[in-house]
Amino acid sequence: MQPGGGASAWSPLDFGSDLLFWFDANVMCSGSLWVDQGPNGYDLSQATGSKQPTLITADPDFDGNNSLSFNNAALQTM
Q1: Which of 18, 26, 27, 45 has the fewest CB atoms within 10 Å, measured from its CB?
Q2: Nearest to residue 77, comparing CAs of 31, 19, 40, 27?
Q3: pLDDT at 6
Q4: What is the pTM of this model?
């Protein structure tokens, strides 16, 4: 419980050893590197600039959190 009686905040780390990877757009090193926040270090990278996703900061579609936009026409991949 949080102060005031609210429910505890959920985290992917609550999965413990069952968590394989966790990617958070709020914790990116750059457009070319997305660091795994989970226990295994499965970082994603894309060296080719034209194939990198676009980082959208404070995305209103995700409650002001960051998000990534992948452009299918450019075959953007991580």
Answers
A1: 18
A2: 31
A3: 61
A4: 0.63
